[in-house]
Specification:
Elements: H1 6-27, H2 36-47, H3 56-86, H4 89-94, H5 96-109, H6 112-116, H7 123-133, H8 138-163, H9 167-170, H10 173-211
Helix pairs in contact: 1-2, 1-3, 2-8, 2-10, 3-7, 3-8, 5-7
Length: 216
């Protein structure tokens, strides 16, 4: 199956698959690879078709719930396994750049970051973990998580639903999906390449220092 065939994914995975995807994107660090915005938008377009894979009300109820539960999972991971997670492979792969960006949002917007981060790829995956790691007040986190989940999931689904009749959008879903995926993959690839080059320079400098004759 074409990995960018979002219509095929929604048709075969259905509502359950979409719920799992939203949960993973918001609750587990590995979920940063998913372009949730495009999938939510496409799900809304599908809901407007004569034979949808799921009814609109099901999307509006269950997808925010999946995001809320995912947030709680991410918060718990950050709070109780924070140091280990921060040193883990997934976080190392994501890189320090997105983490620093997320902390900057917290410094600037405080708890509202949990709300606004919903609409920023990668950041929405990092926020629950970093909120738990920094021991953000759980009730405050939950409040903004619920608000953000409703705005993100229902807002984008409804946007897709009401724009679903536009042929240009309906007939080019894969292009939309690929474009969203590129906006996530390219920054990650740049970060990985930059870090590898920096590591090689450090190793080369260390080798030169070790082989150079000691000063007398």
């Amino acid at each position: 199956m074409n990995p960018f065939d979002v219509t095929g994914f929604l048709g075969s995975a259905g509502l359950i698959g979409l719920i799992v995807l939203i949960f993973v994107e918001t609750g587990l660090l590995v979920g940063f690879i998913f372009p949730g915005d495009s999938i939510l938008f496409t799900a809304g377009i599908f809901a407007a078709q004569p034979q949808p894979f799921a009814q609109l009300w099901q999307l509006l109820v269950f997808l925010p719930l999946a995001a809320i539960v995912g947030d709680q999972c991410g918060y718990a991971i950050g709070r109780y396994a924070g140091p280990k997670v921060m040193r883990g492979r997934v976080m190392n792969f994501i890189g320090q750049g997105p983490v620093d960006k997320t902390y900057e949002f917290f410094d600037k917007y405080g708890p509202f970051t949990v709300l606004f981060a919903r609409f920023i790829g990668i950041v929405r995956t990092l926020v629950p973990v970093l909120a738990g790691f920094s021991k953000m007040d759980h009730r405050k986190f939950t409040l903004f998580s619920v608000l953000g989940s409703l705005l993100w999931c229902d807002g984008i689904v409804l946007l897709g639903y009401f724009l679903g009749g536009i042929p240009l959008l309906r007939d080019n879903l894969e292009v939309l999906f690929i474009g969203s995926a590129i906006t996530i993959i390219v920054p990650i690839a740049i970060t990985v390449i930059t870090r590898r080059r920096a590591r090689r320079r450090e190793e080369a400098a260390r080798e030169v220092a070790e082989t150079a004759p000691a000063d007398r």
